[in-house]
Write a structure and sequence with these properties.
The chain has 438 residues and is mainly alpha-helical. The chain is built from 19 helices and five strands. A three-stranded mixed beta sheet has the order 4-3-5, with no helix packed on it. The termini are far apart. About 4% of the residues have low confidence.
Amino acid sequence: MDVRPGFDLDAALSRVARWLPTQGPIKDFVHHNTLHALQATSFHEAVAAAASVYGARRGMSLAFFVDAYRDGRISDSALDRALAGRFPEGEARSAARATLFTSAPAVDVAARSGLRALWTERLGGVPLHRRSHLHLYRLFGSYLDQGLSTWRMPDAERVGLYECVARLAADSALPLIPFHTSGARALLALPARDAIAKALAKTVGREESYETYLLETLLAVRGWSGLIGECERNPNLLLEHRDVTLLDCAAVTLVAELGCLEHELGEDFAPLAPSVSSSPRARTDAVPEDVRLQIWQEAFEWSYDEPLLGALTENARRASHAPRASKVWAVFCLDDRSCSVRRHLEEIAPEVATFGTAGFFGLDFFYRGASDAVAGKQCPAPITPHHLIVEREAAAGAQPSSPPWWRRALHLESDTNTLVRGWFLSYALGIGAAARLA
């Protein structure tokens, strides 16, 4: 294998996977914590790290908080409370308060000025992912298809993602863009690990930057790469098995982008060869920008918490009503979003008793509709269904009657799914489809 001893690909992929979403197939989606990798970190540290990695804003701007203070949406007591948490000494607190209203340069965000951003200028102002994602999304979607598409990706159920794409590129009668360049074809002839090593050497050039570039590349397709990584850890998420790994995902992505670069810049394009990053920029302001924004954020939240906690405290002092016999039962989902509705309803109408229950009512099952290709799980994520419910169009024992000849003549789905006849029929026989629709 052509990976040099200094770069441990498996360890790098393990560290990169930590920052990818852990969302499985969307059929099981309820909600997802996108900062799951930082759950053990304090709030402000987690937000700062996520802003650096993902290139997202960590909160509102300094101008927003200053305007909110001047408009009375941030109270002096809340601001004092937030400052006291950071500066216990009164003199230091007063000095810090004086600097809260002065602007400072924005905090550098690594993800917005990372290695991949260097390609944008060399590609005429178009980001690299704008050229590669259209092709990658088609390949990922076709490979992971669970029986919904009419045309199936050859060998998807037998081989891994990388090998499947390599076979498709080798057997295709037409060039499979962007794997049609000589460099991309040469890499697809290699195992996935060697293809990753050579692609990184060609595009990045410096070994110490391989992991950073790999992270940025997979974050650029983090929906797909996160899904693939989660399916690798838990293969049972897929109803139709696929031998998919994050290693294959990285290999296909890097080779595809190499093909895009060769197509745009020529096969002898120069790698990025980034220099070693310099030390962090020195701060000259008394209170750093990130700490300043944290203080304002806490003061902004306390400005909401103070009246709320005061109202709850005052409400607790009020005499409670004697329990009444319930006249109405109201059943809600066992969900934190229903809690406020239940509390409000019971307060204004004590004769109403509310209950929370799980939406699947204790029946764990898979359900497949009459027009569904696969069955969907209809119970909470930790539960494995023990039942299968299948909807059928015809009654049990009934034989569907054969449609008349003119209905069969207008039933063209089997022909419209082909390349040439589908194109011809969609234009030439549109009147037949309109008659069938009528």
